[in-house]
Amino acid sequence: MKKLFLLLFAAAATLTACDEDKDYGTPNETYTGTLTVTLLSDQTQSYTYENKEFRIDNPADGTLTLWMIETQFVPAMPQLTMEVPGISYSRQVAGTTLLTGDEIIPLMGGTPYERYVITGLNGAVVNSDPHQLVVNFECMGYHVSYEGALAQ
Predict the structure, then answer these.
(1) Core-most of 1, 46, 61, 131, by most CB within 10 Å?
(2) Which candidate, 35, 47, 62, places its Cα nearest to that of 123?
(3) For the chain, what is the domain count?
(4) Is 39 domain-assigned?
(5) Around Cβ 27, how many Cβ atoms within 10 Å?
(6) Is 17 domain-assigned?
(7) Domain containing 63: what range?
């Protein structure tokens, strides 16, 4: 019985150690950059916002979360902080992390906003000098594009 207990204890310790070593992706990082929003039905209607802050967090669920801090898609829209959870990622050989997601419901203040569903999300965290974040997606009839550098 004592051997069985020690064996189970050792197995539990090994599994716990493996979980602690798990690489969930990019660490929490904040980027400052340019947000460009273009109306899909009329590409002459395009809006560019400078010095916009995006943040990538890595919750312990094996996905990434994108935070768009005080962002807006059109000038009449109030500035909102949007949380985009559940973004899939894959690490590449050169240290770049590719981001993908489709049909993601963003949160604002912890509340899901189904009418703002994000589709076709793709992008990358590029571990170069400077460290960069590039993200593209569609939302509410707009194409949204962001390019930013790691905030100092």
Answers:
(1) 131
(2) 35
(3) 1
(4) yes
(5) 10
(6) no
(7) 25-150
pLDDT in tens, 39-71: 999 999 999 999 999 999 988 888 999 999 999
* Structure confidence at residue 27 (pLDDT): 59
Q: For every residue of the chain, which 3-state class applies, written as one string?
A: CHHHHHHHHHHHHHHHHHHHCCCCCCCCEEEEEEEEEEECCCCCCEEEEEEEEEEEECCCCCCEEEEEEEECCCCCCCCEEEEEEEEEEEECCCCCEEEEECCECCEECCEECHHHCEEEEEEEEECCCCCEEEEEEEECCEEEEEEEEECC
In-domain check, residue 20: no
Long-range contacts of 104-112 (CB under 8 A, 24+ apart): 106/82, 106/139, 107/82, 107/83, 108/80, 108/81, 108/82, 108/83, 109/81, 110/83
98: Cα separation from own chain's centroid = 10
Domain presence at residue 8: no
